[in-house]
Amino acid sequence: MKEQSRRKFVKSSIGAGLGLSLPATNSAPKELFVHHVYFYLKNPDSAADKAKLIEGLNKLAKVPTIKLVHIGEPAPTTRSVIERSYAVSWLCFFNNLMDEEIYQTHPIHLKFVEEYSALWEKVVVYDSVGPKR
Fold first, then answer.
1. CA separation for the pair 5, 95 (Å, rounded)
2. pLDDT tens digits, residue range 94-118?
3. pLDDT surpasses 80 at 14
4. Do the bridges between strand 88-94 and strand 33-41 make them parallel or antiparallel, or are there none, so unpaired?
5. For the chain, does the N or the C end have fewer beta carbons within 10 angstroms?
6. Which residues form the Stress-response A/B barrel domain (predicted)?
7. Residue 96 and residue 87: Cα distance in Å, rounded?
8. Would you list the domain boundaries of the chain?
9. What's the alpha-carbon Rg for the chain, to the nearest Å?
10. C-alpha–C-alpha distance, residues 47 and 51, integer Å
11. How far is CA 111 from the centre of its chain?
């Protein structure tokens, strides 16, 4: 078996998870759309509210245009640039902007907002695409 560099292995693993073929360069596919949401709970100390939100996000992950999902919480890192006041993060990848727009209006997403929005005080969203070349 031919040996791979760690970087090539990681890139091919991520690409396989996204259902994409990543190029050998250091760039992601041109059309890749990344949607990262940070949820700040109304009751930040409530383990039950956090668990309920995570339950909802697991349901939301079933939207068919989503290629890869990560549900997370603040890591135990302590550098001064780290933002740790959110409760839960939702990171998902789409093949393109159109797939993300389908997600935004999909019945599963609309139901998620309807059923779980009472849990959060604030939501911050970072959407990104690859740079124009």
1. 26
2. 999 999 999 999 999 999 999 999 9
3. no
4. antiparallel
5. N
6. 33-128
7. 28
8. 27-129
9. 17
10. 6
11. 18
The answer for residues whose C-beta is within 8 angstroms of residue 42's C-beta and 6 or more apart is 49, 118, 119, 120, 121
Q: What are phi and psi of 122, to 5 degrees?
A: -155, 150
At the topology level, CATH places domain 27-129 in: Alpha-Beta Plaits (3.30.70)
Structure tokens at 66: 């989503």
Residue 50, both tokens: 């956090």
Report DSSP letters for 49-77, one per residue: HHHHHHHHHHHHTT-TT--EEEEE---S-
Least confident of 10-14, 38-42, 73-77, 100-104: 10-14
pLDDT at 64: 98
Q: What is the pLDDT of residue 22?
A: 47
